[in-house]
Amino acid sequence: MKTLKINPLKGGTKELLVPGDKSISHRAVMLGSIAKGETVVNNILLSADCLATIDCCRRLGINIKIHGTRLIIDGKGLFGLKQPQGTLDAGNSGTTIRLISGILAGQNYEVNITGDESVQKRPMGRIAKPLRLMGASIEGRMSGNEIFAPLTIFGGDLKAIAYELPVASAQVKSAVLLAGLFADGETSVIEKVRSRDHTERMLEHFGVVDSRYALRVTGRREFEGVEIDVPGDISSAAFFLVAGAIIKNAELRIMNVGVNPTRTGIIDVLHRMGARLEIENERLLSEEPRADIIVKSSELGAVRLDGEIIPRIIDEIPIIAVAATQAKGATEIRGARELRIKESDRIKTVASELRKFGASVEELDDGLRIEGPTRLKGARIDSHGDHRIAMAMAIAGLAAEGETVIENAECVETSFPGFDNILSSLAA
Ligand code: S3P
Fold first, then answer.
1. Does the annotation mark 315 as catalytic?
2. Which domains does the chain have, with CATH numbers?
3. Residue 362's closest CA among 320, 326, 321?
4. Rounded to whole angstroms, how far apart are CA atoms 59 and 53?
């Protein structure tokens, strides 16, 4: 078992880089595998989740070379994937299993796919339903009305559908669009609330879409490999954006962070809380905007978060909760029931772990209520096997008095290899 030991941070001015974006990295590997010819991906995230996607694509017969953080994928075109031996393993990655299921639905052979204990507890009905409507057969372990991994997918000969998403989920949207690449005709997705649009942007970058960033694809059209530059992950930067805001006498400059508007909810929330945060050097590369973000110690105030902002901060709520412990007033986060079915039940785990620091946190059915500001006291924390809980609590530890120990910290590798090195560089 790995533990992280955290000591209070005394401020300081630092410049740092976070690794590549997880969502974009998964999509680059999958789309590069079904493009024709070479795709080169620069600044790919080589975390456990993305390595699971690389492993799945390799086992489908794709040659992928890793040179540092550069990936070279020898794409075999839409109909070049081979039936793998044995069961594909998505590890801890919900994105891997849900997105690749869209691709597997387009193959005319049977594939088995599963993941770790946490992935096996995550609902798969949300992708099984549209993929079945398109003509794929998806079987899995049933519990009540819900279907869970291990999944057996038998597809091919898909028909296009127009699908209205019942939940705001980029994973479901992407699974349908990826399956649509193999379907006869035009597949479209309708979303009531906008979720991250990396799949649409990357399809545009590969030249696949009918119109700019459309939620529509025409199937059975081959496309060629491209070069992709992955920006830094704003969900990883979020930990240091909050650290910079809540630590006294701090100024952090985080370089080359993805600032896709469907992901920048954390910046909006910090601005609304009164954080001194600036964006510089914004530019567009591979259809994805990126910028440098500068954050300075701030006096924060409480906010109420609900509705359309929730999908734009869905992965950042644990670290927003940490910021809320240092903000004046009661922060309320509602309409976020989806948090209960992430890598852990994040409503429960955020509440239980923040309380160990002495924070005042109320667990709500669909969110959290946090009263601040509180002087946090160093604590012994359990990550519950959830990378974002481990890292959010590590940042709380930087702002607390005394030492904090994060137990079960190996899960940080899921999305952020090198997190502890950045923590040490802040302290140096
Ligand atoms: C992701 C979408 C989100 C997010 C996850 C990554 C993606 O999940 O929580 O970490 O890459 O599409 P949902 O779309 O299920 O909300």
1. yes
2. 4-20+231-427 (3.65.10.10), 22-218+225-229 (3.65.10.10)
3. 321
4. 10
Choice among 233, 315, 386, 420 that is catalytic: 315
Pocket of ligand 1 (CB under 6 A): 23, 95, 169-171, 174, 195-196, 314-315, 338
Q: How far is the CA of 396 from the centre of ligand 1 (A)?
A: 24
Token code pair at residue 218: 């025409």
Question: Which of 25, 126, 191, 314 is the best mutation target for the ligand 1 pocket, counting ligand atoms within 8 Å of the beta carbon and taking the most?
Answer: 314
Residue nearest to atom 5 of ligand 1 (CA): 95
pTM summary value: 0.98
Q: Each residue of 142-194: pLDDT tens digit?
A: 999 999 999 999 998 999 999 999 999 999 999 999 999 999 999 999 999 99
Please list, residue by residue across 232-258, b when 16 or more beta carbons sit within 10 angstroms of its beta carbon and e when fewer do: bbbbbbbbbbbbbbbbeebbbbbbbbb
pLDDT, block means (10 residues), the chain with 428 residues? 96 97 98 98 98 98 98 98 98 98 98 98 98 98 97 95 97 98 97 96 90 89 98 98 98 98 98 98 98 98 97 98 98 98 98 98 98 98 98 98 98 97 94
Round to whole Å and give the CA distance between 20 and 28.
11
23 CA from centroid of ligand 1 (Å): 7
Q: What's the one-letter identity of residue 357?
A: F
Instruction: Label the pairing between strands 137-143 and 4-6.
Output: unpaired
Number of H helices, E strands in the chain: 13, 22
